[in-house]
Specification:
The structure holds two protein chains of two kinds. Chain A is mainly α. Chain A has helices spanning 5-40, 44-54, 58-75, 77-86, 88-107, 114-144, 168-192, 195-225, 257-261, 267-284, 288-310, 334-361, 368-373, and strands spanning 148-150, 156-158, 227-233, 247-252, 313-315, 325-326. In chain A, a hairpin with a 5-residue loop joins strand 1 (148-150) and strand 2 (156-158). In chain B, helix 6 (180-211) packs antiparallel against helix 16. Classes of the chains: A mainly alpha, B mainly alpha.
Chain lengths: 379, 528
């Protein structure tokens, strides 16, 4: 074993964070692009330029999501089991929405028919908006605690309903997720398209970022008032995974405790705000590459803000806070974490290398002339 | 109590979504290599027809690939959404190969598939070939890790039950990866994929030859497909995963049910080529037997026995009784009586815990099972013989027909007389569905044959579900069926459209429909 159990548990908490950040920056951006598609592309040719900025990458980007799911299964099996079955209809909704995207990307431009293409554009929009929204809604619910229970044989049962997920705070979190991804995508399109499309994308991207700043602030105040979870006592962090062995209470504002205990973590919400503001300014100054870099740091800031507020909780239970799942006790065995850690440190850098190569090779402003000249070789 | 209808619906949903997904996977597995072969010829010879072949077959590959990606997501979701106790109980072992699949294989495949389609103008010839190659490697590695995970469900090595965490935990990653069942399954499954892709290309090329269209294009494609197909079908048949049936208890059960081997025969056992299995009487009526064949196929020897169902039943009964005691001790341990003596006792019995859990279907407490319930559980420890017997024979029958088609195609193609053998070309067109039929029935043999287990001898399927309701499942199954039919219709329609268009869909101006059009314009010009 490279590290002791406690260290590996923490490293996997970080790695899941890395995978989620990778997902937001890449696949999240593709979702934002698809949401913007109909707004910034008025003609078929304009829309094709938009789609072709991510044409060669969307599939690889989507694997960040798939791998995050796989890593969740392998590193935090209890969380995977409880969250996926508890949020059954929400997950199915995301799944059915995600079905639309591969087909839409690949099939849309295979036929000339305007109706065919228009329908696929809607499919792209729905297929991207729904997951972006639902992921935010899921986070919003997790922050409030999820009504599930675990029995002595560690079978989880969920006591909520689908519609209970759609509460006001969760919807704000959902919109926050959509606006941050659209803002990020706006900067991407400003950079990678030209003329009208680029101008419109920049504008909508900045609007989205402004909305994001407002929603992030509202969510922050809300979290400060809502019941957070605190661990009173728990088994040793080196010991085997047992979510049934601790005592947990709830208290208003407890989610902010970590920020006073570890003041450095305040850097994350600040990073999110400052990055969003800088992105707006940089976009306005027509520096889209820098703007895109800052929206990326903004996404890191947002995800780490949620993560550090909840640490070590992953999925608190509102039904029975004592059985809340944490990164100490809902994890895999020492050996599994170790094996997967080795796999991750070998493959994540490799993935980053070849992904970068692909982006470099495909890097250009996608223009309408290019699409017209290569109409059968483009999406 | 266990709600049987709910369990059946959970299984039905998984079966529908897995079987549907698996309509698209085999073509992807094989097509990537066919593309590598054709594109290599292009890079070596520089002849444009090979580039066009790569692009055209790549187009059909892409239409198929999109649905494969979309429906593959379902599988990853469903373990958590519909099999949450499974996810908890074996996630520590089963999740690892899935996560590594993502990191090592799926990233590679998906990153380069986009470059394959859209990178033609931005990459050099060699770079593009490299991209195609990495895509093929990624796709096939992906199958490797998925089958490592699946092989573990069939033969769960390298793991041990931990009463403290109430789940299976990994004890050896090497054993998990080098699980003999996973190895043979991998070879068998990917070769079956190569066969599917070869038959697809062979059949469509034959159709063009029959129509007299784009002959140079079609005959070259036919050559590649017949060669690759023959090698692959030989691989599937000779390395059929029957050789994996001697390791692991559940694999033995599968073998006995496939062969309707009710009682252990003297080695080497005869192979029942065909017959009508009767579960109540435990006999096979009207059986046509081939002496020695089963012993040779299954054990690769003349003196090892193939265990019959009645003997396996006796073994299972013993293990169920042990499992009841194991469960009794598990409860003690879970309730704090974890004395060293109890732990030691549990450790000696825990391999039979899964058999004890089979009784949960009849009595939640397990330990108070009646004699009658134990006998029922023994009967439960086998899949039904009928579906196993017939699925296997349909699969093998399709394989044999394909072997003949590929062998003749290869032979006549090598003698350059394929154009005259119109009956063979027609047979090749009609053979296109065969690999899919064989593959779907192969899935049934492997996964229905695993019943009643989700994880062989470890976790019964009926315990592996989530805590949902019958109505939840009726709703999602309906949604899946409707949605998947739509996907299939759109995909099938688009595929057919491009198959009919042929290489003319590349708009190079060199192929059938474009030449026809040019001819007409020329004629019109001459007349006016």
């Amino acid at each position: 074993m490279i590290f002791d159990y406690e260290t590996l548990k923490f490293l996997w908490w970080l790695l899941i964070g890395v995978l989620l950040i990778g997902f937001a920056i890449t696949d999240g951006m593709d979702m934002g692009v698809a949401i913007l598609l109909r707004l910034v592309g008025k003609t078929d040719l304009e829309r094709r330029t938009v789609i072709n900025t991510i044409g060669a990458h969307w599939d690889g980007n989507q694997v960040w999501f798939i791998t995050a799911g796989g890593a969740l299964f392998a590193a935090w099996p209890m969380v995977y089991a409880a969250a996926f079955s508890g949020f059954y209809f929400a997950m199915m909704l995301v799944l059915f929405a995600l079905f639309l995207r591969p087909l839409a990307f690949d099939y849309r431009s295979k036929l000339e028919s305007a109706k065919w293409r228009n329908n696929w554009d809607w499919a792209l929009l729905v297929g991207s908006f729904v997951p972006a929204l639902v992921f935010g809604v899921a986070f919003g619910n997790i922050l409030q605690g999820v009504p599930f229970d675990i029995d002595n044989l560690l079978r989880t049962t969920y006591q909520g309903s689908f519609f209970a997920l759609l509460n006001p705070f969760a919807l704000i979190a959902g919109l926050l997720s959509v606006t941050m991804l659209v803002g990020h995508a706006g900067m991407w399109l400003q950079l990678r398209t030209d003329a009208e499309v680029s101008v419109r994308s920049a504008q909508y991207g900045r609007y989205a970022l402004m909305l994001f700043i407002a929603l992030f602030a509202i969510a922050g105040f809300w979290v400060a008032k809502m019941d957070g979870y605190q661990i009173i006592s728990m088994p040793d962090t080196q010991s085997y995974a047992n979510p049934l062995g601790k005592v947990v209470t709830t208290a208003p504002g407890a989610w902010l405790d970590n920020y006073s205990k570890m003041p450095l973590t305040i850097a994350f919400p600040i990073l999110a705000f400052v990055s969003a503001i800088f992105a707006i300014i940089l976009s306005k100054l027509n520096k889209p590459a820098l703007a895109l870099a800052t929206t990326s740091t903004m996404l890191i800031g947002v995800i780490m803000t949620a993560g550090s507020a909840m640490f070590p909780f992953i999925m608190p239970s509102s039904n029975n806070p004592n059985i809340s799942l944490t990164m100490w006790d809902a994890v895999s065995s020492h050996m599994t974490l170790n094996v997967m850690f080795i796999a991750a440190i070998i493959f994540v850098p490799l993935i980053l290398c070849y992904t970068t190569w692909c982006y470099v090779k495909m890097w250009r402003k996608v223009t309408q002339t290019e699409i017209t000249n290569n109409t059968h070789g483009s999406y | 109590m266990i709600d049987e209808a709910f369990v059946d619906l959970s299984r039905l949903q998984f079966a529908i979504t897995a079987l549907f997904h698996f309509l698209f996977v085999p073509l992807t597995l094989g097509m990537t290599w066919i593309l590598v072969i054709i594109e290599s010829v292009y890079v070596m010879t520089g002849r444009e027809i090979y580039r066009d072949m790569t692009k055209f077959w790549g187009k059909l590959f892409g239409i198929n690939f999109a649905v494969g990606v979309a429906t593959g997501l379902t599988m990853e979701f469903e373990f958590g959404t519909n099999w949450s106790y499974y996810s908890h109980y074996v996630g520590d072992v089963f999740g690892a190969p899935l996560a590594i699949e993502g990191l090592m294989a799926f990233f590679l495949e998906s990153t380069f598939v986009g470059m394959f389609f859209l990178g033609w103008q931005r990459l050099t010839k060699r770079q593009h070939l490299g991209v195609t190659f990495l895509m093929a490697i990624g796709t096939n590695l992906s199958a490797l890790w998925i089958l490592v995970a699946n092989g573990w469900m069939q033969n769960p090595v390298g793991a041990e039950f931990n009463y403290q965490t109430m789940r299976m935990e990994m004890t050896s990653f090497a054993e998990l990866v080098f699980n003999p069942v996973a190895q043979v399954k991998f070879i068998h499954t990917v070769s079956a994929g190569y066969v599917a892709a070869s038959m697809f290309v062979l059949g469509i090329s034959s159709w063009y030859i029959l129509k007299g269209r784009d002959l140079a294009f079609a005959k070259r494609s036919f050559s590649v497909a017949s060669g690759f197909g023959l090698a692959s079908i030989l691989c599937v048949i000779l390395l059929g995963d029957e050789s994996g049936y001697e390791v692991g208890e559940v694999q033995k059960v599968k073998l006995a049910t496939i062969e309707a081997e009710w009682h252990t025969e003297e080695a080497p056992a005869a192979f029942t080529a065909i017959g009508i299995p009767d579960s109540d009487e435990q006999v096979t009526h009207a059986a046509v037997k081939i002496p020695y064949a089963l012993g040779l196929i299954a054990t690769r020897s003349l003196d090892e026995q193939v265990t019959g169902i009645s003997d396996l039943e006796k073994k299972h009964e013993v293990r169920i009784r042990n499992g009841m005691i194991a469960y009794e001790y598990l409860e003690k341990l879970r309730n704090g009586e974890d004395t060293p003596a109890n732990i030691a006792k549990f450790d000696t019995l825990k391999d039979d815990l899964g058999y004890g859990l089979l009784l949960k279907r009849y009595t939640p407490n397990v330990v108070d099972a009646t004699e009658e319930q134990i006998q029922k559980a023994v009967k439960d420890s086998f899949p039904r013989v009928g579906p196993m017997f017939w699925s296997f024979r349909i699969m093998v029958g399709c394989g044999m027909i394909m072997l003949v088609v590929f062998a003749l195609s290869f032979y006549y193609n090598a003698h350059r007389v394929i154009e005259q053998k119109r009956w063979l070309l027609k047979a090749a067109v009609w053979s296109i569905p065969l690999p899919w039929i064989a593959i779907e029935f192969g899935w049934i043999v492997a996964e229905y044959g695993r019943q009643p287990w989700a994880i062989s001898e470890v976790l019964p399927t009926f315990l592996a579900t989530s805590s949902l309701t019958v109505n939840d499942l009726l709703f999602t199954i309906t949604a899946f069926v409707i949605f998947y039919i739509c996907l299939a219709v759109i995909e099938g329609w688009l595929m057919l459209k491009f198959v009919k268009l042929g290489p003319s869909s590349l708009h190079t101006g060199k192929y059938h429909f474009e030449l026809e059009k040019a001819d007409k314009q020329l004629n019109q010009g001459a007349q006016s």
